[in-house]
Specification:
The protein is an all-alpha fold and 112 residues long. The protein has five helices and no strands.
Length: 112
């Protein structure tokens, strides 16, 4: 859980400091950036809901590993974007920027 906290606090700090310079960077965009950074950590839902339970409910084989891949993270970012009525391109871009950054961090370091 410390990794999730780190992945949420890093964009909060960076975007808060950046918002002092850029007027368009409001609290709304800071929260969207934090959500994007948390997307690769959604794999931790396996702690609460076992993959076997999901397999039983869906009736097909299921694994959580693709969620933390680049494609899975972008798919989840797209699903989150659907809930917004306007500025969908900007929101998807912002979510993708942060989720790709932390997905790449996971690939390179293997610890993030």
């Amino acid at each position: 859980m410390a990794v999730l906290l780190t992945h949420v606090l890093v964009p909060y700090i960076i975007l808060t400091v950046a918002s002092w310079q850029f007027n368009w960077l409001t609290d709304r965009w800071i929260v969207i950036g934090m959500a994007g950074a948390a997307i690769p950590d959604l794999i931790k839902i396996e702690i609460i809901v076992d993959a076997g339970v999901v397999e039983t409910l869906l009736g097909v084989p299921f694994k959580y590993a693709p969620i933390s891949s680049l494609g899975g993270a972008l798919l989840i970012a797209g699903a989150i974007t659907v809930f917004f009525e306007r500025q969908r391109r900007q929101i998807f871009s912002f979510l993708s920027l942060w989720c790709v950054q932390f997905t790449r961090c996971r690939w390179v370091a293997g610890v993030c």
